[in-house]
Amino acid sequence: MMAAEDYEILDPRFARLFNSNAQVEKLFTGCRWAEGPAWFAAGRYVVWSDIPNNRMLRY
After folding, report:
1. What's the pTM?
2. Residue 2 confidence (pLDDT)
């Protein structure tokens, strides 16, 4: 589970879409610089990349 201090909403337009009652779960730690995520509905998984470590991750 993540606390509000673990994320920051930078664009007020996103705040309108964000459910303040939703529980945010941290899926992974250890990326030096993560990019993504992208949801693949057909496979029901999330992928993201860790550029400096030259790897793609999936959950």
Report:
1. 0.61
2. 54
